[in-house]
Amino acid sequence: MVSGPTDGGPMNGAHGDGARGDGVFIEVDHVEKVFEVRRRTGFLRRERRQVRAVDSISFTVPRGEMVGYIGPNGAGKSTTIKMLTGILTPSGGRLRVAGIDPSRERSRLAHRIGVVFGQRTTLWWDLPLIDSYRLAHRMYRIPDARYRANLDRCVELLELGALLDVPVRQLSLGQRMRGDIAAALLHDPEVLYLDEPTIGLDVVSKARVRSFLRDLNAERGTTVLLTTHDLQDIEQLCSRVMVIDHGRLMYDGPLAGLHQAGESERTLVVDLERELPPIDAPAPARVVRVEGPRQWVAFPAAQSAAPLVARIAAEYPLVDLSVREPDIEAVIARMYEERATA
């Protein structure tokens, strides 16, 4: 959990804007993060080398925007978020969140941010869920009325009522994740950092979390920076996506533009009544695999699936079909290969 504030600063709505005059709320200017790594090279011998986790990235985020921040494992996503929260100090460049330098004023910034790390809980493992919320109440010095209102709202929308008296260690992954999100929002943060918030969740839990985040952004204008490997998280929540790979920002724009840049494809999985020759799909769609009555039809991810589905349904004995989203790591890998050969 991000360190709690040491003073009783004002709650959301009582802060100064903190954004620049042009509306920028998060500002990242040529930021770098270099780690020194030691490895054994022989008996009593170690070699030092530097690993550049974030390599001179720059971007801005206006207040109230929901942004997807994606890339393969080890790309630098979590390192960026840790610098934005003040957990890590940049090796170079300039960071500002609401006008605050995170590494220099971490306690002050804690009033204004919420953080959820999908693979690390911020809750107290052996205590009932409600006790973690009571601790946050005291740590952030949240006024009683505001704490109760926020808690009631999170409990209702995230369906936590039956879980409040359950020790955190007994919660399923999906239940714990919803509990972590509630904990991050009790003090009315203006910006919410979500690092893999739907990792390992079932379909129902994912839908519940996404719906809650959409409502939060619409009703309160909370700025959200989301890292995820699930492209549906991005499609359903974010109007903008940034791609980082090997510590460098490779793309910043709408999701459709990402598909075009990476020339990614979605796949229509078609189950027919019987085994047939490959479907005659209109270009650029094409059959890429046939196994008995099931066929896989690839088509550009930036295009709608509706015309292709309508044509297949009209011309073939269709039993069922589904659309599979492109593997985001494959999209980014293709973008990286194209840049390397350019």
Automatic annotation (TrEMBL):
GO terms for molecular function: ATP binding; ATP hydrolysis activity. SMART domains: AAA (SM00382). Residues 26-271 form the ABC transporter domain. The keyword Transmembrane does not apply. CDD domains: ABC_NatA_like. InterPro entries: AAA+_ATPase, ABC_transporter-like_ATP-bd, ABC_transporter_ATP-binding, P-loop_NTPase. GO terms for biological process: response to antibiotic. Keywords: Antibiotic resistance, ATP-binding, Nucleotide-binding, Transport. It is a peripheral membrane protein. GO terms for cellular component: plasma membrane. The keyword Metal-binding does not apply. Pfam families: ABC_tran. It comes from the Bacteria. It is found in: Cell membrane. SUPFAM superfamilies: P-loop containing nucleoside triphosphate hydrolases (SSF52540). PANTHER family: ABC TRANSPORTER ATP-BINDING PROTEIN (PTHR42711), ABC-TRANSPORT PROTEIN, ATP-BINDING COMPONENT (PTHR42711:SF1). This is ABC transporter, ATP-binding protein. It comes from Streptomyces glaucescens.
